[in-house]
Amino acid sequence: MAVQPWFTDAKLGIFVHWGVYAVDGVQESWSFYDDLVPYDRYMSQLDRFTAARYDPRDWARLFARAGAKYAVLTSRHHDGVALWDTAHGDLNVGRDLIGCYADALREQGLKVGLYYSHSDWSHPDYASTRKPGRPPELEDNRYSEVAAEDEDLAAWERYLAYRDGQIRELTSRYRPDLMWFDGEWDRSEEQWRIRELAALIRSEVPDVVFNARMLGEGDYATPEQGAPVVPPDGPWELCLTINDSWGHQHHDHHHKSVDQLIRYFTETIGGGGNLLLSVGPREDGTITPEQRERLEGLGDWIARHEQAVYGTERGLPPGHHYGPSTLSQDRRTLYLILFDAPRAALNVRGLLNGVRRVSVLGSGRELAHEVTGGLHETPGVLWIQPPAAADLDPHATVLAVELEGELELYRGAGRF
Asked: Over the stretch 307-328, which tens digit does the pLDDT of each residue have?
């Protein structure tokens, strides 16, 4: 099933990790799973979770200003605490925090995404499993891998009924455009009954988009934190934190700069992906000034260079240009992203097209260009005069290279 066109053209989404873990500023779910915080102390945050200053319209306005076209909210993490007043299970915040979020996003023209964990480490019918990435010999006796033949089938049926009940609530109430699943490593696709789960969701939201953690039903790849050196061939999304934490952690002040975020963003869209950038609101629902500042800075850069962002596809493969690039959907304009002030002429290799015009996006200043070399089927090198200092963007400059015809590239090894 092909991913929805809105997703591939969105380029930027905001990932919102918000839950009871923000009260004490501990890691979401993993802090008790990895024995860093006692389970009872972790769950005591539920009574202290206020959402007292939660303003989803403010969130939506900020996300729109950042240039995002969708957002994904953690409706239920591995800890089992639901952010809506679910009728299934015993753990929820006692009110609906999702409906107003969905309404606010749609008011700003943003698509609505919901995160949901397949796993629930608090549910009485969810058997503990071996921790992901840990070999069995290093595990203690509390954890054991659950094979299909060892499953307590009655308990598992109760768990799946609970999960399906919550999913029906999420899809029928909020009609999400995207469902972002996690926690899939504990069991097989068959044990999760992924095909049946997908059918349940599509019965309510036929055009829903799934990330890859819906296993065989996923629509796109979901690399996490580490930008891929070789981008996936199909649609994909890099999920990335602004600092080092998904949710709000009091001690984490190691924020990426606006320059760094622009580099992550342009390298991602240049490789044909979306950036899903995570914010971690405080327990009261407010987003920290440091994270707001970075979203606004990224959004300001995108607003100055929209032409090179939306309505584009992946750009030149490695080896043709030093830096990321994007390509207009009609394949007639290349956008070259420059992170540093060039000291000499810029070049593009392997370009079979003639070039009509090169200009600086934003100022519109035209740049001189020429082609040198080339023999038989091997094209010469396009050289572009560097922009003047006055035309350089403080974060990243974009050059628009208007081609004669649709982009054609030479990928050979030259004439021997």
From this structure: 999 999 999 999 999 999 999 9
